[in-house]
Amino acid sequence: MDSEDDMHDANDVESLDDDFYSGETEDPPMDYYSDYDDNADDYFDDADDSDRIESRRPEQNFTILRELDIRQRQEDDIARVAAVLSIPRVSASILLRHYNWSVSKVHDAWFADEDQVRKTVGLLEKPVFQNSNTRELTCGICFEMYPRARVESTACGHPYCYSCWAGYFSTSINDGPGCLVLRCPDPSCGAAVGQDMINLLASDEDKQKYDRYLLRSYIEDNKKTKWCPAPGCEYAVTFDAGSGNYDVSCLCSYSFCWNCTEEAHRPVDCGTVSKWILKNSAESENMNWILANSKPCPKCKRPIEKNQGCMHMTCTPPCKFEFCWLCLGAWSDHGERTGGFYACNRYEAAKQEGVYDETERRREMAKNSLERYTHYYERWASNQSSRQKALADLHQMQTVHIEKLSDTQCQPESQLKFITEAWLQIVECRRVLKWTYSYGYYLPEHEHAKKQFFEYLQGEAESGLERLHQCAEKELQLFLNADGPSKDFNDFRTKLAGLTR
After folding, report:
1. Structural domain of residue 341, as residue ranges?
2. Mean pLDDT for all residues in the chain
């Protein structure tokens, strides 16, 4: 069972941020729930409503990359290094792969000690094996004689026939991304094998695999880029640090945290989120439930859940031991002298003597811990499901309802953007509110003032969001179901825009 210390260690010094309601966070939390006091007409003029909303959004510090963008950036980096160092494109590619596609690191290392860099990555300036001027050469793998036209070698000069090269490439490429740092097959030689050799001698299937590994290495080896973690998404993200905001929204509509790649969870820190996700999936919670809701059979020690009203328990086969649920004694010992079959008083007597104190204390602690966890998890999961429903409603609004509402109310779709903005705000608010419950779970019980203030802010957030969600979900239906323009639509616009703000 998790101890109270385990539950509260999200507030240790290693956490990214101890209190997201303190002044040290990157944004004031849930400030979009605050009430508005000025004249509503000042806020919701149609001409500048979208401008005001845009101005509230933080400046984007990431770029979404499609496959074409990734290839273009990769080619640009290779061309830049090749031009600055006056080396072939293949050599530039080998250098960049070694230095994790960092152009600056390549330049620094090269100009500091070119000879050492060449030796490290296998870029030889002259052959180490001199081929004789004969019409035929011996393959260094199969030791067969081949015409010069059927033998190929890297910069080191070691000769190998086409079929042996193809077999070497096939085996290496099928072993995984390690093929990107291929060296000459000679065990004593460290000469690098470039992509030009792959393109010349490998099969079409192996060429495609190698090209794919090369593309993925540009993202996976580069500290400034990551793949979007959404299932099936093939977009990558390049991130510019500095703003303190790690939330990234991919073109696939998935939002995630750049720092930990979990679902976007600002303003809750990554440490709390990691612990919460682990707790939701850990076997410890199963054991916690077993400890709180079952008792071990006195004979075989298997946990048993009480599923009927009487105290007469029978263990499952092959044990079949019959015992009393209250005192865990053999049922055969129960009779008139112990208070009757259904009124065991041995347990009460033993409890008064302190026999069961430690066991019951642990059981009670487990039960309280489980109830507390269930409280926060249910609310976390409820907001998650509400967010998923809101996302579906947003999609329905954008694809179907906006057009219908435009026809019904005789207004252009550009004048109905306030509805889409409201649903986008609902989705974002559900996300924030969901993660506040993981934060609340790890708040120390002894910090009463902080806990009360947090729960007050959480309640205000919940209240404001429910008003907005109900307005966008229920009250909008009146206008969607209307047969014609409604004189109350402008009042609805003002109300919904006000709740959104």
Report:
1. 295-355
2. 80
